[in-house]
Amino acid sequence: MLVISGIAIYRNRVWAYKSLSNNGNVGLSVDVSLRSFTYSDLEKITNGFKEELGRGSFGTVYKGTIWNGQKLVAIKRLEKVSAEGEKEFQTEMKVIGRTHHKNLVRLLGYCHDGEKRLLVYDYMSNGSLADVLFTPEKQPCWDERIEIARNIAKGILYLHEESRPNQYHDWHSRDKGNLSEEESILEEWAYHCFEARELGKLASGTYADKRQLERMVKVGLWCILDEPSLRPSMKKVLLMLEGTVDIPIPLSPTSFLSTV
Q: Where does ATP bind (predicted)?
């Protein structure tokens, strides 16, 4: 169930970054208190980028220390500096650098050194969501999984509607993140389980309240629709997760494309 949420988060994040970047108003003159690092600084901080924490669609993340080893940080290195990558870097500087929310990781600094682009974040000692979900001794119970999903939604809602006026508002409905073949298959399988009333397969190995599980799956399926204009707003997503509004029967993730 949280894997479906992860796909939805990826799509929302890519969609938001693309739309902001397309506005063309993002620059390095950001009115935030961020520390500037040289690439040499970050090589030392990470011991030559020795310890990799993870990889994502926007780059590779490494573990490091600042303040004479007293504070752990996570350093994201963008792999390719293209025109799109530059916009991506500047967008994250502008938006995340101004953002302070308990459900969002804090940006501490950046490196804009020649063609190298890196971002320095607070280190999250609990690891990534994947670490929590797939490490047997860390796996959360059902209630904890629901709370994780709600907190993720609160963080995204803050970025979309509450952090600063118009930061994430001028979106283009055609923009969305593209998924790999494996992720598309996962979407289709999840929808098949929903249609076949086999929701237990989506929460294998953990006790889940059936009504809560159905609600979470329905929310996830609405959030991964191929057509962005059909997806609910983050405010609506949070209300659905909290059980305060009714959730319609979700469409097939590819239903819009099949009618084109």
A: 76
Give the DSSP letter of residue 161: I
Residues 17-38 pLDDT 10s: 444 344 433 344 444 578 899 9
- Separation of alpha carbons 227 and 92, rounded Å: 25
**Residue 245 DSSP one-character state:** S
Q: 63 or 15, which is more confident? A: 63
Binding site per annotation, positions: 76
Domains and CATH numbers, the chain: 2-15+127-251 (1.10.510.10), 26-122 (3.30.200.20)
Residue numbers in the known binding site for ATP are 76
CB neighbours (10 Å) of residue 194?
19
**Helix and strand element counts for the chain (H, E):** 9, 6
What is the CB neighbour count within 10 angstroms for residue 199? 18
Provide φ and ψ at 204, rounded to 5°. -60, 135
Residue pLDDT, tens place only, 112-159? 888 889 999 999 888 888 888 888 888 888 889 999 999 999 988 887
pTM beyond 0.85, yes or no: no
Question: Which is it for strands 107-113 and 35-36: parallel, antiparallel or unpaired?
Answer: parallel
Digit-coded pLDDT (tens) for 53-63: 988 767 899 99
30 in helix, strand or coil? coil
- Distance CA(206)–CA(200), nearest Å, equals 9
> Which of 134, 132, 130, 3 shows the shortest CA–CA distance to 54?
130
